[in-house]
Every structure is written in structure tokens, then in C-alpha cells.
Amino acid sequence: MDDLKDRVVVVTGGSRGMGREMVVAFAERGAHVAIASRKQENCTQLAAFVTDRYGVRALPVGCNVSNWSDCDRLTEAVYDEFGRVDVLINNAGLSPLYPSLAEVDEALFDKVIGVNLKGPFRLSAKIGARMVEAGGGSIINISSIAAIRPNASAIPYAAAKAGLNSLTEGLAQAYAPTVRVNTIQPGAFLTDIASAWTPEGRAHMENSAALQRCGNPDEIVGAALYFATSASSFCTGAVLRIDGGTA
């Protein structure tokens, strides 16, 4: 992983859960990090931690990726601070609960599409174009098993993540041959949202996986490092399932 030292990595949804694990993993390997999420305070705390622990530069940015102007502001802040981006990880996501499909209102639907699809498109368009100009880079989208295994409790989310998978292949063609674009497609992971799961729901997810368990947040790291480095130099437009063999 020597090619990560002094690289610049941007992680949206980077202050907690799998995003936090990726931020820490890249910083541990000498990369400078931009940490973006809706809560500035959480980003600032994590930035201070990785700077103190690993001696890298860290930029905290409060950003709602469903807002294009926020995406543009994040892009400019990162380039003003670091002058370049080597890796963009579109990790921010959300899937609000709803009582029924008929009760999904327009605001909720737009919010889900905005965070999970619209934001990654805008950031990839803005940063990806600059990566091409700079001669290379890697964009990593974080999708979901819901993209190919949708269920009634998360249909707008599943549709957004399916769109993200499609976006990955299109961007891989658009930015080739210098910029690679790939997707990690996680299954059920024990992030903070797992606290809202019912015991029955968790048991169902565990029983649906060949490995008979949910993932731990740090188990996303290996795939992220793979796509971010020369280890995946001949890989673009790919969707890698990290789901314990969910059927």
C-alpha cells in the first residue's frame, strides 16, 4: 500500500460507520483525508483524531451531498486545501423507514435519491473531470445489496443504489483510460444503524448470508484499499459484493 502515502482521499459520510473505518484506514497508511458528512462537528473530531494519531493532514467539511451547491463547495474546499484528489469515495447514504409505499411522500423520495444517487453523480462529475486533467485517479462508489435484492421496506433506496451501479459503469467509460470507477456493494453491516434493527430482522439477514453473520464496519476496508491502489490497476466498471454471500 505504499502508493497511498501522501495521496488525497475524499470520503463522504466519512464521520461514522464504514466511512469512518475507511478514513482511519487511509490515514493509517499515510494518505491525507477530506472527511465530509452533514454534521461538521463529527467531521472535525475525526479529523483531529487522525491528524494526532497518524500525522496526516485532514480536512473536515460539513456537506449534504443531496445539495449540488454543497457538492461544489466540498470540491472547491478540497482542491483549495490539497490541490488535487486521488481517490473519491461516495459513501454517504440513507434509507429512511416508511409505513407503506403509498405513504412515501415526495420529500422522502427526493431525499433518498438525492443522497444516494444525485450526490455521487455531482461529485464524480466535478472531481472526476479534474482527475482526468491531472492524469489519473480512482472513484469508489458504495452501493448496497438492496440494488440487486430489493425488499418492500427500502424500495426507493434500492432503486437509487441500482442507479449508482449503473452510474459506475457509465463513468468508467466516460473517464477511461486514466480514471478508474468501481463500486463496493455491501450486505448487512453492523454500523450504528443496526441498533434500530429488530432481533427478527437481524436474524433474517444473518440467515440469508452464506457466512451466517453480518459484516463488521472494518470489513469494508480491504475492498476500499484494493480499488484505491494499483492492486486494482486493470479493474474499472466493476461491482464487488461484500455481503457474506447473501442469497
Low confidence ranges: none
Q: Please report the number of helical segments.
A: 7
> What helical percentage do the residues reach?
40-55%
Query: What is the number of strand segments?
Result: 7
One letter per element, helices H and strands E, the order comes to: EHEHEHEHEHEHHE
Identify the strand order in the major beta sheet: 3-2-1-4-5-6-7
- Might you state the CATH topology name? Rossmann fold
Estimated share of beta-strand residues:
15-25%
Task: Provide the domain count.
Answer: 1
Overall 3D shape: globular
Q: What is the name of the CATH superfamily?
A: NAD(P)-binding Rossmann-like Domain
What Rg is obtained from the alpha carbons, in whole angstroms? 17 Å
Largest sheet, described in full?
7 strands, parallel
Q: Name the CATH architecture.
A: 3-Layer(aba) Sandwich
3D architecture notes:
The protein is α/β, with parallel strands linked by helices. It has one domain (8-241): NAD(P)-binding Rossmann-like Domain (Rossmann fold, 3-Layer(aba) Sandwich). It contains seven helices and seven strands. It has helices at 17-28, 40-54, 68-82, 106-134, 155-175, 199-208, 221-228, and strands at residues 8-12, 32-37, 58-62, 87-90, 137-142, 179-186, 239-242. Helix 2 (40-54) links the parallel strand 2 and strand 3 (58-62). Helix 1 (17-28) packs parallel to helix 2 (40-54), helix 3 (68-82) runs parallel beside helix 4 and helix 4 packs parallel to helix 5. The radius of gyration is 17 Å and the shape is globular. Pfam families: adh_short (PF00106). This is Putative short chain dehydrogenase/reductase.
